[in-house]
Amino acid sequence: MTTYYDDRSVQVTSTAIRVDDRVYPLAEISMVWHRRGSRSWRVLAGRGALGAAMAGPLAAAVLGVGLALWLDRSPTVTIAIVGASVLVGLAVGPVADFLFEYLDRSYARGSRQRELWVRCRGRHVLLLRTGDALRFGQIYRAVQRAVEQAPPPGATRAAARAAARPVRSRGRRN
After folding, report:
1. Whether residues 57 and 141 fall in one domain
2. Is residue 174 a part of any domain in this protein?
3. pLDDT at 163 > cutoff 80
4. Are 154 and 68 in a shared domain?
5. pTM above 0.70, yes or no
6. Residue 20 sits in a domain of what CATH number?
7. Domain check: are 125 and 105 in the same one?
8. 128: exposed, middle or buried (C-beta count within 10 Å: 0-12, 13-18, 19+)?
């Protein structure tokens, strides 16, 4: 038995697909497809907030330098305001790496629900619904590989092995 995908709730093998407590034998699956849901505005708003969090300290630094020059105070006060503004701008560095990683994970998860459907025993069955685009892609590809490698319905193992063997020709090669 070959395992194509395995996590705590989904297992795809060369004999069956297990999702939570349900098991679907591959011999009974005739078709696989997926559907995408609508975008999640909550996820998109979160990405916008991350962008604002990254741009905020830089904007504050630029505004601080502008304010220092506009106030036209003594050189000591101007240098202090510019120095504080630059420090605020430099605060982006350590925080940006964390925020970029979080933003990258947000894109890997995706912004919409995805559904994996199969036709099992003549009925359309929803196998999985998830918002995690990376995990969905791994499971969908595993199901596709398992179904492609499975023998056709009604075929015996011996017939499936014989069909997989290369045919040797007898005769002259040109």
Report:
1. no
2. no
3. no
4. no
5. no
6. 2.30.29
7. no
8. buried
